[in-house]
Amino acid sequence: MILSHIYIVGRFHGEVMKILKNRLSKSDYQKLMQIDNPAVHTFIAKYIDLCNPKKVFVYADSEEDIKRTREAAIRNREEGKLVTEGHTMHFDGYYDQARDKEKTKFLLPLGGDLGPEINDINRDEGLKEIHDIMTNIMDGHELHIKFFCLGPTNSPFSIPCVQLTDSAYVAHSEDLLYRQGYQEFLRQGPDARFFKFVHSQGELEEAGLGLLVSKNIDKRRIYIDLESDVVYSANTQYGGNTIGLKKLAMRLAINRASKEGWLTEHMLVMGVNGSKNRVSYFTGAFPSMCGKTSTAMVTGETIVGDDIAYLRNIDGKTRAVNVESGVFGIIEGINPDDDPIQWNAITNPAEIIFTNQLVTDNGHNYWNGKPGKCPEEGANHSGEWHKGKKDKEGREVKPSHKNARFTFRMDVLDNIDTKIHDPNGVEVSGMIYGGRDSDTWVPVKEAFDWAHGIITFGASLESETTAATLGEEGVRKFNPMSNLDFLSIPIGQYIKNNLDFGNQVEKPPHIFAVNYFLRDKKGEFLNDKDDKRVWLKWMELRVNKEADAIKTPTGFIPKYTDLKRLFKEVRYKDYSKEDYVKQFTIRIPENLAKLERIEKIYVDRVPDAPDEVFKVLGEQRKRLEEAKEKLEDIRLHLGEL
Ligand code: SPV
Ligand code: MN
Predict the structure, then answer these.
(1) Is 161 a catalytic residue?
(2) Following DSSP, what letter does each residue of 457-498 receive, concatenated?
(3) 311 and 208 in one domain?
(4) Number of structural domains, the chain?
C-alpha cells in the first residue's frame, strides 16, 4: 500500500532500494542488483512490504539453492519423506484439491469484457480485495523468491518469470517443473518482459502426518492482472491454483500470444516414430483427466511435453515447445500394465513429490487403483484414515483423491525426446483434439483441412467433467481446444487466432480428433486404453501421405485394412471387422445433436464468434443430413472394407 502511494508521487526508487536493503541479506541484495531491470526490484519490494514475511531468500539457479528449497519443504512440514529415496508426500487441504474456477478471476478495467464464459472482477475492486487479503499474510513465514523460464532458455519462445511464494512446496514443485531462470534474467536485463507471481498459502493448520495445509479456504483467491502481467494467489496450496508458471502463467501467455500472433495451447507435444527412423511431431489438446499425459507417455514414442505448448510460425513452419520441463500428472489408476513408463518413473528412487495419497506407517504411498492390497489405515489429505471413513458430507473418503498427483522432472523418463530443450522447438506435423465423449465421435478421424479441424474438432470440443476442477462430475461441458478454463481473451478472438495461424504458415499441420471414451449402447467402452498407440501410428502415416482414408461427413476415417495391419504390428492383436464397424460407424443422430448444441453455444454465449464458425458448422450439418438419408449405405460401406 505504502509503495503504490510512493509510486504516484514518483519517489519510489529510493523507497524500493530501502526496503530491499532492510529486508534482504547482503548476498541476496547483490543477487537482485545483478539483474539489470528496475521493474524486477520494484515488484519484489512491493510484495515484501505488503506480505511482510519473517524472512526472505533469493534463489539463483544453483544446485545448492535447489537443495535449499527441497529441505525447506520438509522443515516447514509441507512435505513428509516417504520410504523410497527422493520421494515425499504433500497434502492439500481436504477442500483444496482442485482448481477453483469460481474464485479465479481476471481483473478488468471499467469497460473491459472477455465475454460471458470468462470470470472477471473490476480491476480496482479486485486489486483492493486481494491486497487487503495479502496484507501481512506471510506473517511468520519465509518468502522464497525464485526465477524461472517458460519454454527453453535463450530461445524465441523464452518468457522469464519471477515467483514470490511462502510455500516451499510450490517453490520445490517449480524446481521440478520448470527451467531455472535467474541466468535468463541476467541475459535479458532491461529487455525482459517477464511474468510475475505472488502466492501465499496463508495461515496454516495441521492435517494428516502433521503436515500443514491452508486454513482460510474461504479467502482463497486467484486474481490475474493482464495489464501488469501479475498473478495473485492466496489461501490455497493445490498446484493448479498456486504453481505460478503452470495455469496462472498460461492465462498471461494466451493474452500475450494473441497480441503477437502466436499460440499458447493446453497441449502435449510428442514424437511418433515411423518407418526408417522417421519421427513426426504432434501436439494434442485434451481437457484435464482425458488422457493427455498417458498419450504423451505412450509406449514406443517420445515425449516432449504433456500439458502446455507454445506454437510459433518460424520461417513459415509451425514449431512448438514444451513450456515446462517436468510433469504434474494424475496418479489414480496408474499400474505397470497400462502405464509402464509412468509406473517405472514413480516407483523408483528419484526426486518426486506425491500429493494427496494414503501414507502407511511404514512410509509407503498408496493410490486408488495401485496394484496390491489397499491398506486398512494410514494418513491422507483427510487426516487419519481408515477403510470406510466418511467425510462431513457423509461421502466415503477414498485412500487417495481422484486428482491426486505426482510431480517429477522429465529427465526421470526413459522416453524423453532428444529435442526437448531445442530453442527452436520441434516442427509440428499434426494436431490432435480429444475429449471425454461416450457416444458421438469415432475413435480417430482427420479433418478435411485446417478450418474444418479447428472449428468442428477444436472449437467443438466437449467433455464430460472430471475431478480436476471442483464441482459435479460427468456433465457434458463445452471446452474449446480444452483451453476454456485458461482463456484470457474472448473465445471468438481465440478461435480467430487459431484460424489465422494456420493460414499464415506454409503448410498447416493436419488436424485429428480422437475419442478414447466411446461406449456401445450397453455402456461398455469400445476400446482398450492401449488402442491409442494404433491411432497415433495411423496419424503418422497420414501426415506422411502413406495411408488412404475414407471420407465421411465428419472427416476422414481409417480404412479397416490399415488398422488391421497396425493392430497386428503395434499390439500383436487381431482386429476384427466387427469391432471396426462398431467403432467407426458414424453416429449421425448424435453428431447432428452435437452440432445443434455447439451452434447454440456459439449463438448464445460467444458474441464475437467468427462467421467462419457458422459457415463450417453449416457445411457439416448439410453433409450429415445428406448422409442420414442414406444411412444404410454408410453402414454397408464400412462393413465391406
Ligand atoms: C489440469 O487440470 O489441466 C492440469 C493440472 O494440468 S492443473 O495444474 O490443476 O491445471
Ligand atoms: Mn493441464
Answers:
(1) no
(2) IITT-EEE--TTBSS-SS-EEE-GGG-GGG--S-HHHHHHHH
(3) no
(4) 3
